[in-house]
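User: Reviewer 2 asked us to show a designed sequence for the structure in our supplementary figure. I'm pasting the structure tokens here. Could you produce the per-position amino acids so we can include them in the response letter?
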């Protein structure tokens, strides 16, 4: 969606930000929401904020999602003040009405957070330490939400990491073929069908239900530009009850891949065991007291399961006419699906190595 500058100024005016508005520009490359950097100036000082339009077609209950957001950040900020949580926390700016969001006349939902300075949002780790720090931050995020008071968080997207349900939806689209695209991707359809066993490898009902992030891409942790330390976990829209293994697997999927998600040259796509080893160390450092025996035993399968699931989602969206993810060209989702399946193939080739890395790291953890 494109927004005229006049509309943006009107939206921003609904949040009583100090100073005069002096800058607006797009920020990031998210697939779902629209994100902007806002700059205000007061005398010689300036402040930065992040404005986001919540995609209410993907998140059908924005009010409940923002209630989740508020509860999570309030809980973590309290722990930060008590010295129990070592990371910065996103801070919501209230609207003129005192709400944690603003709804415009077109039905769009908007929120504003303070900008976190000195942080890098990386699509790739520049070294093993970046992967380690991101994994440590996501693990600490999980561990510090285990005692969140109150009722369960609202489910913002139903069956988000239900791999079996994703697979069944995919099969339905193959059969229905609403856009007459199935014949173009027979190889990918067959590839997915041969790996149906992955749909049952991590069934949420077989593991403890915990509060998890559900979108642990590397770029959802800010890395300090000078120290290289993780400083803040971002993008809390999908935080809800789920399985911690999905978070671990998704970080491994994004950070342990040699290529960008939009790469079209599949020869550049491979799994990176050295980066994966750093992820395992960082994650277990924060969660060794959190994970039970079954979670530890299944940890090595998580990267394959989540890579398979995302490949299914991209391929399903392509078959359905690109309804979910933002696309830049007609075959964008198809290219994304091919990359995920190529990465999965590489993971399969390293399956023994992956298991050995996890088992070796677990030996140094307390039971």
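Assistant: Here is a per-position design you can include in the supplement:
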């Amino acid at each position: 969606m494109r927004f005229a500058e006049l509309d943006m100024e009107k939206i921003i005016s609904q949040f009583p930000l100090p100073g005069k508005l002096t800058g607006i520009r797009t920020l990031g490359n998210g697939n779902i929401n629209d994100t902007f950097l806002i700059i205000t100036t007061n005398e010689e000082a300036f402040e930065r904020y992040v404005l986001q339009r919540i995609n209410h077609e993907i998140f059908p209950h924005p009010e409940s999602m923002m209630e989740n957001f508020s509860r999570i950040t309030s809980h973590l900020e309290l722990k930060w003040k008590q010295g129990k949580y070592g990371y910065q926390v996103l801070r919501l700016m209230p609207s003129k009405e005192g709400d944690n969001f603003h709804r415009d006349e077109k039905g769009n939902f908007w929120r504003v957070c303070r900008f976190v300075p000195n942080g890098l949002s990386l699509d790739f780790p520049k070294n093993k330490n970046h992967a380690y720090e991101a994994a440590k931050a996501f693990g600490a995020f999980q561990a510090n939400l285990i005692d969140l008071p109150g009722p369960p968080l609202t489910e913002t997207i139903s069956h988000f990491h239900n791999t079996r349900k994703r697979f069944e939806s995919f099969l339905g689209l193959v059969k229905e073929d609403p856009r007459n695209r199935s014949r173009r991707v027979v190889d990918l359809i067959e590839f997915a069908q041969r790996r149906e066993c992955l749909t049952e490898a991590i069934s949420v009902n077989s593991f403890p239900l915990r509060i998890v992030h559900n979108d642990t891409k590397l770029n959802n942790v800010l890395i300090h530009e000078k120290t290289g330390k993780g400083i803040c976990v971002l993008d809390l829209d999908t935080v809800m009850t789920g399985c911690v293994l999905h978070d671990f697997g998704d970080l491994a999927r994004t950070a342990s891949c040699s290529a960008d998600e939009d790469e079209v040259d599949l020869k550049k796509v491979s799994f990176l065991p050295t980066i994966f080893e750093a992820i395992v160390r960082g994650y277990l450092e924060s969660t060794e007291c959190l994970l039970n025996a079954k979670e530890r035993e299944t940890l090595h399968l998580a990267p394959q399961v989540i890579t398979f699931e995302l490949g299914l989602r991209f391929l399903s969206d392509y078959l359905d006419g690109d309804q979910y993810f933002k696309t830049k060209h007609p075959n964008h989702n198809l290219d994304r699906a091919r990359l995920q399946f190529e990465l999965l193939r590489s993971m399969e080739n390293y399956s023994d190595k992956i298991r050995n890395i996890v088992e070796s790291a677990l030996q140094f953890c307390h039971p």
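For the response letter, you might also mention the following. The longest strand covers residues 45-54. DSSP finds eleven helices and ten strands in the chain.
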